[in-house]
Amino acid sequence: MPFSSLGFAPSVLPALQRALKEQGFAAPSEVQTAAIPAILQGRDVLGSAQTGSGKTAAYALPLLQQIVLAQPSRVRRTQTLVIVPTRELAVQVGNAINNFAKYLPHRVKVAVVFGGVSINPQMMHLRGGADIVVATPGRLLDLIGSNALGIAQVSTLVLDEADRLLDLGFGEELGRILALLPRQRQNLFFSATFPPDIEVLASSMLHEPLRIEVLPEPETAPDITQRAIQVDTTRRTQLLRHLIATQKWSRVLVFAATQHASEIIAVKLRTAGITAEPFHGALSQGKRTQVLMDFKASRLQVVVATDVAARGIDIVQLPVVVNYDLPRSAVDYTHRIGRTGRAGESGLAVSLVTAPMMAHWKLIEKRQQLSVQLEQVEGFEPTEAVTEQAELPASPSNGGIKGLRPSKKDKLRAAAARAS
Ligand code: AMP
Q1: Above 80 in pLDDT, residue 127?
Q2: Does the model's pTM come out above 0.70?
Q3: Residues enclosing ligand 1, CB less than 6 A?
Q4: Is residue 392 part of a domain?
């Protein structure tokens, strides 16, 4: 079914189609086919859909039509409020909406607001109003409290990744926001999972919603090739450079154990003429956003991240992930390699295995029931002796391999990372 059969108004369709074509959207995804006609008719929607399903376009396209067709008034009022759990998702959704809105007959103003950065530029941007506000809950309430924004005239509310909103402890803020919204409104509720608290929230908000469930299809199970290369500790950067050049890797996410290590690796790569930036919790939010934008726009070839910071990275086309330092736990290994091979693309995960980490690698393999052939690359054959005891990479952990418990120092680091 083409986008033209979903019920878009003739005055809006060509502009949307032009933007969709430009972005390579040939036909609507499953969630788009189901949600768009219902949203255009003003219905509430309860979508069980993961990132990668195309849910952003599923709600953004019909909402853009609603805004364009609404009676234009001299004062812009916020008609659509999109609440998201993280700053990264806010930026991503804002960019997506702006891209879809590019050729519409009226300019649709989108404001993206999130915490962790100065509030003043966001207040300035909100002067004169905004048609769509994409916000994280805390900053939204701050802006409402400073009279920079009013939400009393919102006609559609979108909760994107509702389960993560509650997981991150935004339940109370959400309650305060809902109390400020008009009772009469359209509600679009998207969540990847439906634990009891989400069911309760959804049933309290939604009015006879259309339920859409997009199950991850078996054939879209990630196609990730895993490789493990033995190398000496001191030759890892050289090997990484060699692999980037010989394998022609255009976009690589490299994992380092510490913030310091990620800085050093990025500097070494830059010295070798490769565009690389570190990505960790001690960087300002502005810097992190910039690094992600540059990475997505291919202005950066390599991002060197820590585990904690990388949780906010959501990039669909990420062909290669490299474990420069091995992850602390098998759970982290799965999270890391899951960054590649998304949305049906194939991916490659390469782990650099040094002799002191050999036992640790074997534990990860055992835990994940993997059997990855250990390789050597010509010119980088290891000379270090394999030791019995696995060393712990000094990264904070969100899981653990039995027998490898975090040390006091690790716990302090984890606490510092959480605080940053
Ligand atoms: P989302 O689930 O909204 O985060 O979208 C995941 C990715 O799929 C984004 O990179 C979109 O640009 C892309 N996408 C969404 N819908 C389509 C479509 N109909 N055709 C091609 N790509 C799409």
Answers
A1: yes
A2: no
A3: 24-25, 28-29, 32, 51-57, 316, 343
A4: no
